[in-house]
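quick one, 128 residues, struct below
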Amino acid sequence: MATCTGITRTGERCKGVAIDSSGLCYAHHPAHAEDRRRAARKGGHRGGRGRPQSELANIKERLSELAADVLEGRQDKGVAAVASQVLNVYLRAVSVELKVREQLELIERLEALETLLEQRKQERRYGA
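---
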């Protein structure tokens, strides 16, 4: 296996394995620049799907406690009504955030598929 001919940021020769006759590894190959950019953009943005679930569980618990406090006379009904409205707005915001995240993930996946399809079309044109 050939070693990458690319130079790292520290000025040393890359120790990666060349992926084709260009002599460059995935990290240095210009044909993969867009894929690397897309992958780097995802870093730190997803946060996992557990976050909305934990937020929803927290809100459900708070609403349950609020209802119990009202029923047992520990909380004024007017204050509880306003608090539940605020929590409802928060729930809506969490829901919209989740939908936006899902849309962004779908767009990224669609872009990746379109890129792959275009690469395959070009490979067929050039007989690769």
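The two ends are 21 Å apart (CA to CA).
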